[in-house]
Amino acid sequence: MTRVASMALATAGALLLQGCAGWQSALDPKGPAASELAWLIWFFTGLSALVWVLVMIALVVPLMMRSRAQAEPLAIDAGADGRKLRVVMTAVGLTALILVGLTLLSFFANRTLAAIGSDASLTIRVTGHQWWWEVRYEDATPSRILTTANEIHIPAGEPVRLLLTSTDVIHSFWIPSLSGKLDLIPGHMNVLDLKADKPGVYRGQCAEFCGAQHANMGTFIIAEPRAKFDAWWNDQLQPAAAPTADEAKAGEELFLKRPCVMCHRIGGTPAGGTVAPDLTHLASRQTLAAGTLTMSRGNLAAWIADPQGIKPGSHMPVVELSGDELNAVVAYLEGLK
Amino acid sequence: MKQRPSLDLSALPTFGHGPRSPTWWGTLGFMALEGMGFAIAAGAYLYLATLWPNWRLSAPQPNHWPGTIVTLLLIVSLVPNHILHGYAKRCAIGPVRIGMVVMSLLGVAPLVVRWFEFPALNIYWDTNAYGSMLWVLLGLHTTHLITDVGDTIVLTVLMFTRHGYSGRRFGDVGDNVFYWDFVVLTWIPIYLLIYWMPRLG
Amino acid sequence: MSSADLASERDLPPEREASVKGDIAPEHDGPRDTGMDDAGLHRWLTRTWRTPPGIIGALSSVDHKVIARRYLITAFVFLCLGGLNAVAMRIQLSGPQRGLIGPDLYNQLFTMHGVTMMFLFAVPIVQATGIYLVPLMVGTRNIAFPRLNAFSYWIYVSGGIFAWVSFALNMAPDVGWFAYVPLSGPEFAPGKRADVWAQMITYTEVSSLAVAVATIVTVFKQRAPGMSLDRIPLYVWAMLVTSFVVVFAMPAVMITSTFLILDRLVGTHIFNPAEGGDALLFQHLFWFFGHPEVYIIFLPATGMISAIIPVFARRPVFGHLGLVLSLIAVGFLSFGLWVHHMFATGLPKLGASFFTASSMMIAIPNGVQIFCWLATLWDGRPVIRTPLLFVFGFFFIFVIGGLTGVMLASVPLDLQVHDTYFVVAHFHYVLIGGSVFPLLGAAYFWFPKISGRMMSERLGRWHFWLAFIGFNAAFFPMHLVGLWGMPRRVYTYPAELGWGNINLFISAGAVVFFLSFVLFTFNLAHGALKGALAGDNPWDAGTLEWATSSPPPSYNFARIPIVTHGEPLWAEREALPVATGLRVDVRELLISTVAEAHPDIREKSATPSIWPLLAAIAVGGTFVYSIFTPWAVAWGAAPIAITLIGWFWPKGDPEDEE
Amino acid sequence: MRAAVAMLLFPILVLAACQREERDTRPQSALGSGEQPTPVTTLEPGGQRASASDNKAASFEANAFHMSEGKRLFGWFNCSGCHANGGGGMGPALMDEKWIYGSSMESIHATIRDGRPNGMPRFGDKIPDDQIWELAAFVRSLGGNAPSSAAPQRNDDMMVHPSENRLPDAATLGKSP
Asked: Which of A261, A273, A308 sits opposite D26 (nearest CB)?
C-alpha cells in the first residue's frame, strides 16, 4: 500500500509543484510536428500505464493466496502449470501484438513528420558554436542574406527548413514545443523542417552535451505573422544605426578600439569579426548570451563586465573597462535596435 | 549435508588435448574477443571507405610486396605448425623441441619482413584517415604477431628445460599451435584490406 | 545416474598410453580422498587449498571467493563514491541558478558518476558475484584460470584508483561517460582528462574480458558430474550469456578508446571529418558496445531473480527452458539495436525504422522472463523476506523502465525525449530497477553464504522501503521534467522555466535514496559482526552453493557433488551423491565434458602466485604512462613480458608440472 | 628509499597535474600583467632583461587549457594571415628555432602586446592581457617548447602540420612520403 501511496505522492507532488510548463515543453505542442509527437507520447504512456497496471495486478495476486511454504518444493501440480503455460503464452502473444502495433504507429508518425516540410518556403542555416547559435537566412539575392544569432524569427503557419551543422563539437537543436531534436554534427548537414501554428515565442536549448556552457546555450523561435516577419527581415538587413548621443558615440569608439572588435561584427562599422554573435541589431533581441540573460541595460553591463562569472568557460573574455567606459559601451550597444 | 560417495574419479587422466582441455577453451575465448577486435577495426575501415567516394584520399598506392611476402611466409608456416601439433599430441619430446625451434624461426621471419611493411604503406598515420586506418590495422596485427612469437620463444626455451617433459607442456604446445593458426588466419582479410582494397578506388 | 554408466562413457585418452610408453614423465601419485574420513579430508584439503598466510600470501591469493570478496567490497566503495557524486550534483540542481558547483567541476562530476557506476561498479559487481557464485553453483573447487582472475581484480582496482586519483588531481574526464568526439577529441579537450577516460575504459575492459573468459570456461568445463545443460542453474546460464556478450561487445569499446587516444596522442585522423575520418563513427563503435553493456549489467540480475524467486515461492522456476532461451535471445538481440541511441543524429529514415523494430523485439524475450517469474509466484503465497521484497521492487521499477524503453525505441518519440531527463529517468529505472534492486536482494540472499551470518530482517525491510521510496521520488519526476524540456548534463537552469520545485523534490528523493545505502552499509556491518549464525542452507534453497558450509571452505566442496536434478538439494534430501578419487595433496579438480558434464580429466588448478599482481602493476603502469607518450607501450613491454614469463614459468609445484 | 621516492613523486605529480589541468577563465590580475616597458632593442647589458612577471608566464605556459585557448585565438584573430600555421609567410615562421626577440614567454607576450618593428602590429588594446598570455603560450608550443603533456593536439581540420604535442618529435620524422 505504501508503494502505491509513495507513487501517488510523487506524481501528485510533482504535478502540484509544477509552475509554468509550456514555454519549453514537449507536452505543450505549438506546431504540427510537436502535436503529432505529443499525441504519440500520450498514447504510448497510456498503453504503458495499462500494461504496467496489469503486471502489478499479476504480481499482487499471489499475495492474496494461501501460503504454500510447508509444501515440498518439487511437488508441482502439472495441471496448474499447463494452465499457466497458456496464460504466459497469451501474454507473450499480446506483448508481441502490442509491439508490432507500436512499431507501425511510430513508422507512420515518422512519415507524417517527414511530410511537414515538403513545401518549405524559407531556408535557414543554423550553425552550432560553443555556446551560441549562428543563424543565417538564405536567399537567392546575396544582399538579402541575413546573419544573426540565437533568435530565429520565422513566419507563423508556414513550414521552414533548417539546415543544421556545426563548426566545433556536436550540438543538438531542440525546440520542444515545435519539433523533436536533431543533432548539429561537424562534417554533416542535417535538415529539420518545422512549423509554428500560431505566433509566439518558443524556447529551446542545446540538447547534446557540448562542453562547459552546454547548460546556457538557449535559443528562441519567434513566430510572427508573415508581414511582420518580412518587416523584421528588412530591418535586420539595414546596417546599424549610427549613435547620436555623446556617450553612445564614445561607446562605439571604445568598441572599435578595444577587444570587442576582434570577434564581433556590427554592420556599417569596421567591426567585422565572425567568430562571435553578430551584434548589428543586438538590442532588438530578447536575450543575451544565448538565452542566458534577458535583454536590459543592467544585464548588458553585467555581461560585459563579468562574462566569466555569468557563463564560466564561455569564449567571451573579461575586458578591463572603467565604469565610464562600461557605461559608454552599454549605451552604444543598447542603441543597436 | 550428508554425503553418499557414488562415483570414482581416480582413473581419470590428468591432462587432455584440444577441446578436452580448459586451456584450449580459454585460448578460443581470447581468440573470439581478439577476432572481434579485428572485425570492429576492419568494420571501421570499411565504414570510412564507403563514406568517402575516393577512398585512399588521393594517397599513393601501397607497395604490396612486403605484405605479400609476409602472407606467403605465414601460410607456409602453417605446414610445420600442424606437423608440430601431431608430435605434441603424441607427447614426443624430441620432435616437439625441433618443431618449436622451427616455429620460432618461422615466427621471427615474417616479423622481420613486417618491419618493411610500414614504409611500404606509402603514407603516414597522421596524414589522413586512410593512413591512420592502415597503420592501425597493421599495428593491431603486428601486436598479435609479436606477442605470439614471444610466447613461442619462451615456450621453446621451456621445452628444453626439465619442465618441458610433462603432459601439461604438450598441451601448451598444442594451444600455441592453435593460436598461431589464428594469427595467420586473421592476417588474410587484413592483408586484403590494406593492400588490395585501396587499389579498387 | 550411477557411477557405472559415467565410467563406461569415458574412454581412455591416447595421452595415457603415451605416458605408459615413457615419452613423458610418469605421474607422481599422492593421497586420494577415497575412503578418507571427514576430519582427515578437511585437514588435507585445507592445507592444499588455503590462501598462504601473511601479506604476500594475501596478495598472492587465487581463491575465487577471496578475489570475489575483494571485488565486491571494491565495487561497493566505488558505488558509494559514485553516489556521492550524484548527491553533489543533486544539491547543485536543487534550485535554479545555484552557484555551489561550477560547470568545470560539474562536468567532471557527472562524467565520473557515469564512468564509476558503469565501469567501476555495475559491471565489476555483477562479475564479482559471478566469480563468487558460479564455481560454487557448478560444484567445482576454483574458477578456471584462477591467476588470470586475480590479475583481473588487480587491473580493475588499479584502473579505479587511476580514475579517482585523476579526479582528485582535477584531471578527471569531463566529456560525459560516452565521451563523444569531437568534444573529447584532440581539439576540444585540452589536457589529459579525455585520455584518462580512454585508458581507464581500456583498463577495466581488460579485466572484464578476462573474467568473462574464465567464467565461460568454468561453466563449460568444470561443472559437477551430471550437470548437463538442462540442469545448469539459471543464474549460471545468465552469467554464461553475459560473459559471451562481454566477449563480443567489450572489444568494440577498447577499439573505440584506442582510436580516441591515437587521435589525441599521435595525431591520427580517424574521427577528423576534414581528413577522411568521421565523428559519427565514434558513436557507432561506442554504442555497438554501449547497448550490450546495458544487458551485461541486466542479465546477471535476471539470473539472481531466477535464483531468489523459486526459493521463496517454494517451487522450481516456471518455464526453465523458456527463461534460458530468453536469455540467449536477449544476448543476441542486444547487438542489433545500438542505433537507437543515435536517432537524433539524422540517420536515413529507413535504417532508423529497422532499429525501431529490433529495439521493440527485444521486449519480447524480456516479457517472457517477466511472465515466467510471475507464473512461478502464482503457486501460492510466497515467503516474504527481504530478498523477495527487493525482487518485488524490481518488478515495480523495471517494468516502468522497460516500458519507457519501448517509448525510446520509437524514432519520432525518441526525438522529443532523447538526451533529456526523461532518458535519465528511463535508464535509472532500468539500471537501478533492473540491476541494483536485484543486487540488493542478492546481497540479502547470499550474505549468509559469504559471511556465515544473517543480515537483520527488520533493518532489511526499513532499507527496502527507504530505497524504494527514495528511488521513486528521485527518478519518477525526472520523466516529467524531461518532457517539460530539461536536457540532461546541464549544471544549472534558468528560473523562468519553472523546473525549480520539481528539482528540489528530486534532490530530496536522491538524498533519501542515498541514506538507504547508509542503512544498508550499517546492516552489512551489523550482520557480519553480530548476525545470527546462518548454517549451510538458511533459506532451504535447491542449488549447489548451499550444499557446503557458510562461509565455504577454501576448497569449496570436500567431495565433488554429483548432480541429478536442476535443484539438486531439493531432489537429494537425505544425502548428496558425491564423487571420490581426487588427490588431496595437490589442487586437483574435475574437468567434465561441455554438454553432458561427464567427468573427463583430473586437472590441477593453479597455486597462489604474486606474479598476477606484478603483471597488473606492469600493465597498469604502462596504461597510465601511455596517456603521456606513445613510447610507453615500448617501455612497458619489457616489464609486462618479464612479469608474464614469471607468471607462467613453472616453479616446480606438482600443479605446474603434471 | 622506495617510500621516499614515492613521497616525492606524488607531490610532483599533483603539482604537474594541477598546473596542467586548471581551467581558470577569469583574469589573474593579482599575479601582475607585465606592465613594464618593452625594450625596443635587444642590446641589454648582460643579455636578456630579467622579467618581473614570470609567475604568470609559468602558470600559463604549463597549462593545457590556456594553450589550447591560445590555439583557438591564433585562428580567430587571423594570426595565420601573416604567420601561416606557424610556418611563416609575411611574418616570420614560428615553428623554427629562431626567435628574433627571444623565446621567453615574456618576450612573446611583449611582441604581441606592443608590436615590433617591420610589421608586427600592437594588440595591447585589442586583446585582453590574459588572452595575450594564452597566445604567447601557444606560440611557444609551436616551436616544440611546451611540455608535450600540455601542448595542444591536432585540430579537427585539414592537417597543416603535425600536432603541437608531437613537435619537434614529428619534425625529425621528415615529411610524409
From this structure: A308
Q: Delimit the domains of chain D by residue range.
A: 67-147
CA distance A233 to A238: 9
Question: At B33, is the secondary structure helix, strand, or coil?
Answer: helix
Q: Which three cell numbers stand for residue C14?
A: 591416447
Q: Do D72 and A259 touch (CB under 8 A)?
A: no
Q: Name every chain B residue with its beta carbon within 8 A of the beta carbon of D170.
A: 126
Q: Do B124 and D176 touch (CB under 8 A)?
A: yes
Q: Which residues of C touch B16 (CB under 8 A)?
A: 13, 15, 591, 600-601
Give the residue ranges of DSSP H helices in chain A: 2-17, 32-60, 78-115, 226-237, 246-257, 260-263, 297-305, 307-310, 323-334
Distance in Å, alpha carbon of B81 to nearest chain D alpha carbon? 38
Distance in Å, alpha carbon of C231 to nearest chain A alpha carbon: 14
Angle of helix C146-168 versus helix C64-93 axis, rounded to 10:
20
**Cell 565495487 maps to which residue?**
C75
This prediction's pTM: 0.92
pLDDT for C549: 93
Which residues in chain C are closer than 8 Å to B144, comparing Cβ atoms?
Answer: none
* C182 interaction partners in chain D (CB closer than 8 Å): 156
- For A9, other C-beta atoms within 10 Å of its C-beta total 16
Does position D29 have pLDDT exceeding 60, yes or no?
A: no
Which one-letter amino acid corresponds to residue D122?
R
ipTM computed for the complex: 0.90
Among A184, A174, A82, residue whose Cα is nearest residue A125: A184
Residues in contact with C235: Cβ distance below 8 Å, sequence separation at least 6, in sequence order: C133, C134, C137, C300, C303, C304, C306, C307, C543
> For residues B56 and B48, what is the distance between their CA atoms, to the nearest angstrom?
10
CATH code for the domain defined by A246-334: 2.60.40.420
Contacts of the segment A292-299: beta carbons below 8 A, 24+ positions apart: A292/A216, A292/A218, A292/C494, A297/A330, A297/A334
Whether A263 sits inside 8 A of D25 (CB atoms) is no
Q: How far is the C-alpha of B70 from the C-alpha of B111, rounded, in Å?
A: 8
Closest chain D residue by Cα to residue A130: D72
For the stretch A144-174, pLDDT in tens is 999 999 999 999 999 999 999 999 999 999 9
Q: Which residue of C has its CA nearest to D72?
A: C187
**Contact A99/C406, CB-based, under 8 Å?**
yes
Which residues lie closer than 8 Å to A232 by C-beta, 6 or more apart? Answer: A153, A224
A214 contacts C489? CB cut-off 8 A: yes
Is C237 in a helix, a strand, or coil?
helix
Instruction: Scan for cell 604438450, then name that residue.
Output: B170
Q: How confident is the model at residue A315 (pLDDT cuts 50, 70, 90)?
A: very high
Q: Does domain D67-147 have CATH number 1.10.10.10?
A: no
Q: Which residues in chain B have Cβ-Cβ distances shorter than 8 Å to D154?
A: 126
Mapping DSSP onto H, E and C, the string for C176-225 reads CCCCCCCCCCCCCCCCCHHHHHHHHHHHHHHHHHHHHHHHHHHHHHCCCC
Residues 629 through 648 of chain C touching chain D, CB cutoff 8 Å = 629
Which positions 40-99 of D are in contact with C (Cβ < 8 Å)? 64-65, 67-69
C443-499 pLDDT per residue, tens: 999 999 999 999 999 999 999 999 999 999 999 999 999 999 999 999 999 998 889
Averaged pLDDT, B98-110: 95
pLDDT at C489: 94
Of C23, C209, C656, the CB nearest to B33: C209
- Cα nearest neighbour of B27 on chain C: C213
**Residue-range domain boundaries for chain A:** 19-67+74-115, 246-334
Interchain CB distance below 8 Å, C272 and D150: no
Q: Does C628 touch chain D (CB under 8 A)?
A: yes
